[in-house]
Design a protein that fits this description.
The chain has 213 residues and is an alpha+beta fold. It contains eight helices and six strands, in the order E-E-H-H-E-H-E-E-H-H-E-H-H-H. The longest helix is centred in the middle third of the chain and has 22 residues.
């Protein structure tokens, strides 16, 4: 059995300045004020759009992130309706080929704790039962019935900037209740990276995160 930490990968190259310029060009169509585009106007325009709640203009820019999380966390990710998803399928992926399953390490228990050792034993049991079923000619979609929530899954989420802001507001900052620790394990680093890449779009969320921490 392989135990790995959760993580993420942004699948697109994001040029923060180009993102702001694109949003400005699109937003100015509404006012026919394209002639006002100049150095520094993109940042001011996007900052003003966010401050005034006119976030529909952010929907014109999208990017994809691959999350490596457990199945439980993935169930929360796919609740975000205004996004597209592609997820590793336990119906079609046969983990019997490698002779082991991969699980996500729980970030809330130290490896020398009783809880972690109990969890590890249960994961080994689930792995053994799964491999026994596969060896007994069960199909992957049948054998998956014994796989645990901690099973590693890879899920790609594609969303526009407005939905990423909503996602991170809920899943990193926690404006509607405290997010699950394993969700924050990937969303807080993602928010930090996006704040560094497109600060005008994510500064307010990052500041909210700092205040709540």
């Amino acid at each position: 059995m392989v135990v790995v930490s959760a993580g993420y990968e942004i699948l697109d190259q994001i040029n923060g300045m180009e993102v702001l310029r694109k949003i400005e060009r699109i937003a100015r169509v509404c006012y026919k004020s394209e002639d006002k585009i100049a150095d520094g106007t993109a940042e001011r325009m996007v900052r003003s759009l966010i401050r005034n709640g006119h976030e529909s203009m952010l929907e014109h820019v999208s990017f994809s992130v691959k999350f490596i999380v457990d199945r439980g966390v993935s169930h929360e990710i796919v609740r975000h309706r205004l996004a597209s998803f592609a997820q590793e399928s336990t119906r079609y992926c046969n983990y019997g080929h490698s002779g082991e399953i991969t699980v996500i390490k729980p970030c809330f228990w130290s490896e020398d704790s009783a809880n972690y050792m109990n969890w590890y034993d249960e994961m080994k049991t689930a792995e053994r039962r799964y491999l026994e079923l596969i060896a007994d000619n069960a199909s992957p979609q049948e054998a998956r019935s014994v796989l645990p929530n901690s099973l590693k899954t890879e899920i790609v989420m594609t969303a526009n900037l407005r939905e990423w802001r909503h996602f991170l507001r809920l899943r990193a900052v926690g404006t509607a209740g405290k997010p699950h620790p394993q969700m924050r394990e990937v969303t807080i680093p993602l928010l930090r990276e996006l704040q560094n890449t497109i600060p005008v779009v994510f500064n307010d969320l990052f500041n909210d995160l700092i205040v709540k921490q």
